[in-house]
Amino acid sequence: MKKVTFAEFGGPDVLRLVDADEPHAGPGRIRVAVRAAGVNPADWRIREGQFQETRPVELPAGVGQDAAGVVDEVGEGVEGVEVGDAVFGRGSGTYAEYAVLSAWARMPEGLTFAEAAGYPSVVETALRVIRESGVRPGQTLLVSGASGGVGSAVLQIARDRGITVIGTASAANQDYLRGLGALATTYGEGWTERVRRIGRVDAALDLAGSGVIRQLVELTGDPRKVVSIADLGAPEHGARFSGVTGDVPRALAEAVDLMSRGRLHIPVEKSYTLADAAAAHIDSRAGHTRGRRVLVV
Questions:
Q1: Residue 71 contacts residue 32 (beta carbons within 8 Å)
Q2: Residue 8 burial by CB count (10 A; 0-12/13-18/19+): exposed, middle or buried?
């Protein structure tokens, strides 16, 4: 089978599309014929070696955590899913023609494989950081870098919970944020004053890693109310860096519920082939994403 791997840490040029042995579903796992794989910032951060101290990988390594596809192997002890089912979920080495998933859910009707591949890590992360921020219904959450996949999910989940969201993004993405129910403003010079004019901030999320932790702490008045998924230096300001995956099966179930009620939709901004994985990483690292980027197999 074809699979994207890297044998050394570095830039996108270390990625290789190679012939590899097919993985197989062990106990409690399923294997899917991958139709699409989600592209997440964590993918290129791992490729660069940023997480080696906390989440070491052995080289050569595969790439990717999220996938949507058709079940073609069911491991021992697995119930409720059969060969031929269309599912989406979380696993490892998902930039490939076949991948093993450790958490999954059936794809809701009307969802394409490309769309489904964009949800697993994004929704799990969104649910986790909302919880860790301590924001409650009736309060206001500030989201820095709100137009990407996690931001898109945060905005919609928060709205479903009765939480007001102020979102920052580029000028080109202001209407997109408003369409998701956010009070939108641009980042750049004077952004903190623009936020203050919108209203009080009870908690804040840094989703872009653009060096704004100090300002987010000032806006909330409490570093314990600030959570980042992109700035490893957040704890230096008393804020929290959230990088440990939570309950993925529960997140997938909540995603299905939200989608079935019409409360969650994350668009696919751009799709790539496996051979274009390096280009996908370059675009993901550049930011300014509106929704999700995926690889179509």
A1: yes
A2: exposed
Residue 143 token pair:
């989201």
Q: 158 near 135, Cβ under 8 Å?
A: yes
Pick from 123, 128, 135, 122: which is nearest to 224 by CA?
A: 135
CA dist list (Å): 175 to 168, 214, 293: 11, 27, 20
* 112 in Cβ contact with 171 (< 8 Å): no
Per-residue buried b or exposed e for 205-242, using 16+ beta carbons within 10 Å of the residue's own CB: bbbbbeebbebbbbbbeebebbbbbbbeebeebebbbb
Neighbouring residues of 197: CB distance < 8 A, sequence distance ≥ 6: none
Report the C-alpha gap between 5 and 177 in whole angstroms. Answer: 35
Q: In the structure, what pLDDT confidence band is assigned to residue 287 with cuts at 50, 70 and 90?
A: confident
Q: How far apart are CA 228 and CA 234, in angstroms?
A: 7
CB atoms within 10 A of CB 132: 18
Which long-range contacts does 278-284 make (Cβ < 8 Å, 24+ apart)? 278/12, 278/13, 278/15, 279/12, 280/39, 281/12, 281/15, 281/39, 281/43, 281/44, 281/47, 282/12, 284/39, 284/40, 284/41, 284/43, 284/44
Backbone angles phi, psi at 62, to 5 degrees: -80, 175
Pairing assessment for the beta strands 226-228 and 203-206 based on DSSP bridges: parallel
> What are the Cα distances from residue 165, in Å, to 136, 168, 265?
11, 10, 17
- In terms of pLDDT, which residue wins out, 245 or 273? 273
Q: What pLDDT sits at residue 291?
A: 87
CA–CA separation, 23 and 128 (whole Å): 30
The reported pLDDT for the residue numbered 54 is 79
CB 168 within 8 A of CB 195: yes
Q: Which pTM value belongs to this model?
A: 0.93
